[in-house]
Amino acid sequence: MKQHLWILELAFRWFVCLKLWVYGSGKIVGGQFHRAGNIPEEIAQLPIADVGGFDLAWTFFGYSFGYILFIGMSQIIGGGMLLFNRTKLIGVAILIPILLN
Predict the structure, then answer these.
(1) Residue 55 near residue 65, CB atoms below 8 Å
(2) Model confidence over 49-89: pLDDT tens digits?
(3) What SS3 class is residue 47?
(4) Do the beta carbons of residue 34 and residue 59 sit within 8 Å?
(5) Packing angle between helix 2-29 and helix 65-81, nearest 10 degrees?
(6) Among 72, 50, 73, residue whose Cα is nearest residue 61
(7) pLDDT in tens, 8-57
(8) Number of other residues whose CB lies within 10 A of the CB of residue 24
(9) SS3 labels along 55-101
């Protein structure tokens, strides 16, 4: 039974790691967040009061490239740390504030 739980935990850790790598690299290469100069035209034309919450948040988060880089790299590094028994708790400690944000 203990062996089965260990395998299940490892499978979940790999799944979460791969998802975080996809999302983290997507942020860094520009697939997420509306960056300055790359805001969709239909959103840029709207008065701020008419912009939906999702697009407003996506534009706010995309304002600073440093923020995007920090969040993306934290997801990639934290996800990678989940793969090893020695670093999985540190990875979780890195990822909790990032994922809650």
Answers:
(1) no
(2) 888 888 888 888 888 888 889 999 999 999 999 999 999 99
(3) coil
(4) yes
(5) 160
(6) 72
(7) 999 999 999 999 999 999 888 877 877 777 777 878 788 878 888 888 88
(8) 22
(9) HHHHHHHCCCHHHHHHHHHHHHHHHHHCCCCCCHHHHHHHHHHHHHC
